[in-house]
Amino acid sequence: MFDVLPRAFTEMPGGRFIGTLFFLLLVFAALMPSIASIEPPWLGSSAVRNGQSAAVLRCCGCRVLLGIGSVLSFNLWSAWHPVAFVPFLSGMTFFGVMDYVSAKHHAPRRSILTSVLGRFGG
Predict the structure, then answer these.
(1) Per-residue pLDDT for 71 more than 70?
(2) DSSP 8-state symbol, 12
(3) Mean pLDDT of all residues belonging to the chain
(4) Predicted structure pTM score
(5) Alpha carbons 48 and 63: distance in angstroms, whole number
(6) Which of 38, 42, 51, 117 could form a cystine bridge with 122, CB 3.0-4.6 A?
(7) Helices (DSSP H) in 4-120: which residue ranges?
(8) What DSSP state is assigned to residue 86?
(9) Nearest alpha carbon to residue 95 among 115, 113, 69, 120
(10) What Cα–Cα distance (Å) separates residue 67 from each residue in 46, 49, 63?
(11) Where are the domains of the chain?
(12) How many CA atoms lie within 13 A of 77 on its CB side?
């Protein structure tokens, strides 16, 4: 996508405008799921019901910290294994642990809950 499409956009009439618009929309498409996933804890918070935005700041702050931890696990924290005391997770970096928990536990449970609650109108 980042190799072939820019070349294709440069060869078409109006390609600079269309390419810029395409990649701008691609950024929005990447950000929307992140924003949507903040909504459930935000709406469930009593702070929002009281008209305060502290819940939003907490959710966003946690996301930023987890993101920074994931990025740092590829360079500065590459030798750090946060859960080395757990035998099957001992060789994993912070990103590896987050990926394992997300893929093996959160995603299946989220899918099942979405299907069940969607079926029964919950």
Answers:
(1) yes
(2) S
(3) 82
(4) 0.56
(5) 18
(6) 117
(7) 4-11, 15-43, 46-49, 54-72, 94-101, 107-119
(8) S
(9) 69
(10) 26, 28, 6
(11) 1-72, 79-122
(12) 15
